[in-house]
Write a structure and sequence with these properties.
By secondary structure, the protein is an all-alpha fold. It has 14 helices and 2 strands.
Length: 410
Amino acid sequence: MSIVPEYNRNLFPTDDASTPISIATVAPPVSNHPGTKRSRHAAHRSFINRDQFRIRPRYRFGQKCCGCCFLPNSCYPFKFLLGLFNCKGTVMLKTFPQIFLAVGWAFGVKILHNRWPITIPGVFWTPLYTVTVFLGVFRTNLAFQQYKAGRGHLGAMVTALSNAMRFAVSINNTNENSVNVHRVGNLINVVAAMIRIDIRESKLPQGKKRAPRPGTNDFKQWKKKFNSKFGSSTTAGPTGSTGVYWADHDSHASPKISDLLTLKEIELYSNIDKSSQRVILSTTLLMKEFAGSTNTIALATLEDHVIAATAAWRGMAKIIDSPMPFSYGHLMHLMLFLTFVFGTPVAIMCNDAIGWYGIGMVWFSTFLMYGLEEMASEIENPFGWDENDHDLTRFCRKLNVEVNMLTKVE
């Protein structure tokens, strides 16, 4: 006897997500396009701004000017220059505090040097700059490796689940295998959604752009609400509310968790405290569905695909749980401050051959090194809400499109 209720096919999302389904009743077709009036009202009812969670478009350097408008074809040859003024998604604004402090100290050093001239030999600065630059380059390379590995794990997860769906369709009604393709497709989407929830997407307080800092009271209260049991939600929800925070506030996803699960299934998952354990349960239910309608060889093949998807999920979790060691980060920031915020203004402004234009040299050197540090800090965890982080919603939506296409083929 299955531990989940009979699957309702009406809850299976359509390809273009044009029929949002309520938990209580089946709603009429409503367009979910961000520009439609009804979608804006639906977003308001779900107590979350859908626009801030919609799939982010990817663009390369030089395609936009100032981050707001695409360059026309006539200006495209000048992308090397116009692209420099794009602040959105870059580290320019994040380095301003360090730059202002370094430039302010440079003014003070120049005034003091004009009154009490001193000179520090270059042999003192050479090893200091060498060690600092080496630490910065190593940190940036390691962060980019994690960023690249994260995208590889996402692709491996989608590939494994897509292969599982193709395998289910291909063996249906062959060699005594009778697979409920629609049910398997639903469970595959649930596995992807649970991985997305565990890695990033729904770990977000209501109306916030990022989660509270760990250790604070806000973080403890929000975590308690996020992992609340079934029917214990303290916030009023829209019509068809499940009473579970993690399910009610998944409206930015595609497909939404409330479109994939029945009310009893949400109750089943909500009895598990940790989102990582919900991933394990979703993969187990997928295997259980397959085991009841296929032979041992087919089940072993599907298990290989599930294991591959689980390995990709654990690879993403490993990236999140393996930040730069505190001792290395502390030394890195200490060296950056002493060398480029404190030391560089002294080295440049105490040179009699350099006038006040040395301020520009201080600005550039501070921006360069702190820009590398801010970039590394942003991309070492590529599953957050930063502009350059991987968009998990995009990957899950592509998988959903493939699953729906395969069910139509079947």
